[in-house]
Write a structure and sequence with these properties.
about 65% helix; mainly alpha; about 350 residues
Length: about 350
Amino acid sequence: MDDEELAGIANALYALPLDEFIAARTAAAKEAAGTTEGLPAAVKALPKPSVAAWAVNMLAAHQPDILHQLNELGGRMRAAQSSLDAAGMRDLGRERRTLLAAAVDAACSVAEQHGRRISGAVATGVEETLRAVTADEGAAAAVQSGRLLQILSADGVDTVDLDGAVAVPGAVAAPRAAEPGLSPAPARGEETSAKKVSAVRDKAPKGRPATTADVPAAAASDKPRLQAVRQAPRPASPSALEKAQAAERVAAEAADEATRQAQERLEELEAAEADHKRLAHEAKELRARLKSTEEQLERTRKLKETVAAETKQAARAADKAQRSAMLAHERVLRLGNTRP
């Protein structure tokens, strides 16, 4: 069985909405039966990604430019670290924070568009994984493959542990960094994951999940986008001490940034507490006014009932007086008619 053939199927599976993965994988394994030996079992064994990994895969499938920008930034950061450029590392660190925030927002947005809202905890995993893209070329390759299975973590010193982190690892190639400000052009014969998924869905018969088995033979024969993990030669690494010193500077800057953010949160808390105190006072006053109004309403109700009862009594008295007056008048008329 060829890793490229399996990767071609996996690429489309991992670009699908997360809830469709299991059914689509089962259908793809059935359709692979009778083809390459071992392929159906390999397809069936493809693991379902975690929610955070799936969100990153959605970013790779639908907004790959963001990952190329992170990869390009990572290259500049590694160059600055190798040259022990502390000022450059500080500037690049600020640029990374801005780009990471935008990338996490984009991943959450794309994930929601494909049926899954991303919680704060999952978003943290997405950010940690995207941060690893800027720290390690192997992590960048795994993320850009679109077949990520779990979140990645980078400490800035050691290489990222990719064991079990990506499906079909033998078909993951070193990433191509994008030129700053430009969108990376796809390799000859290469399709984006989004286009592959669209082709799969368009060709799939109604009534079953779409899989890459529905892709036309011409598309299946295209050269896969990814070849081998860390295939490209890695530049010479600085010494452990130099890397530790650079990491220390980055950590110090991160600590300063964390302190600044903590101060901002403290100021927000103080403002929230002031608002809460003000609103609690207003609520107390409103409750007092409500109680007074309800008491007035009760008094008015009782007065209304009393006046209504007195009105009825007065109406009956008036009616009785009218009848008495009519009887007296009739008596006067009778007496007047009987006088000689």
